[in-house]
Amino acid sequence: MPGRRLAGVIIALAAVVAAMACGGDSTSDKTATVSPPGGAGTPAATKASGTLTLATTTSTQDSGLLDVLVPAFEKESGYTVKTLAVGSGQAIAQASRGDADVVLVHSPDAEKAMVTAGEGIERTLVMHNDFIFVGPKDDPAGLRSATTAADALRAIAAKGATFISRGDNSGTNALELKLWKNVGIDPKGQSWYVETGQGMGATLQIANQKAGYTISDRATYLAQKKNLGLEILFQKDKALLNVYHVIVVNPAKHANTNVVGARAFAAYLVRADVQTTIGAFGVDTAGERLFVPDAGKPEPVP
Q1: Contacts of 237 (CB under 8 A, 6+ apart)
Q2: Residue 215: is its pLDDT beyond 70?
Q3: Secondary structure class of 264 (helix, strand, coil)
Q4: Domains contained in the chain, CATH given
Q5: Which residues contact 72 (CB under 8 A, 6 or more apart)?
Q6: In sequence order, which ranges of 160-228 are alpha helices (DSSP H)?
Q7: How far apart are the C-alpha atoms of 13 and 6, rounded to whole Å?
Q8: For residues 65 and 282, what is the distance between their CA atoms, to the nearest angstrom?
Q9: Distance between CA 88 and CA 56 in Å, rounded?
Q10: Tell me, what DSSP letter sits at residue 257?
Q11: Model confidence pLDDT, tens digit, residues 86-137
Q12: What is the predicted pLDDT for the residue at 14?
């Protein structure tokens, strides 16, 4: 009898172990196929989520570059990017108030002031292009004969030819005002000097309507050239260099800053494959690249 009892116990224990094993397999299967909250039926996303606010200049928007870069970043990162496309000065002001997480702008003096004030960190070189003088085909001020940007401005002032300024504290506007100051001319208040207070695309359209001159970044002009009667009348002066940097808003100053997302976007812009995309942008539509990728290179200087 004792032997029979022992055999019975052994058989019972074996049955329990087998049942536990089957139960464990069943539990594992259910865990692997469980739906996330909301019943989507697929595993929960592992990418980042939430909103990242980018304050940037209108040239990155009007040229179409952001239409290429931002959707690709959103797809791979999981972030939703809210873009504020304004003049560089306004973009920096917004970021300095904590209304943005990261900025992509082209106003070096204002950028350096932002970092010095502690509002921005990790200012990083992304790309460059240049500014150009555009105007009506008949070129009443004779800019085609100018040898420097200073000569071009003097010719416009001497002729009293219509000049359309953005007048919006943008990087383009800052460069323009610096050039006027360098030649000792204050154009404000002159009958021939018109300030739009608008972005580059809108300013080009107004210059086109008024048959006036303006200074534009090359990318926005080339992207909109087919809709304009304006021609490039002066270019290739070192004083017209146009450099873009990305800056992360300082989380020590603004606690609500999405610094993780900001750093992810900054790293994305300077990544080798994205730099290649930037360098190729515009070749198939405008016939030439609109931006020169600069990540990892020495800072361009005039």
Answers
A1: 148, 149
A2: yes
A3: helix
A4: 51-129+242-293 (3.40.190.10), 130-240 (3.40.190.10)
A5: 274, 277
A6: 171-182, 200-210, 218-224
A7: 11
A8: 9
A9: 6
A10: -
A11: 999 999 999 999 999 999 999 999 999 999 999 999 999 999 999 999 999 9
A12: 42
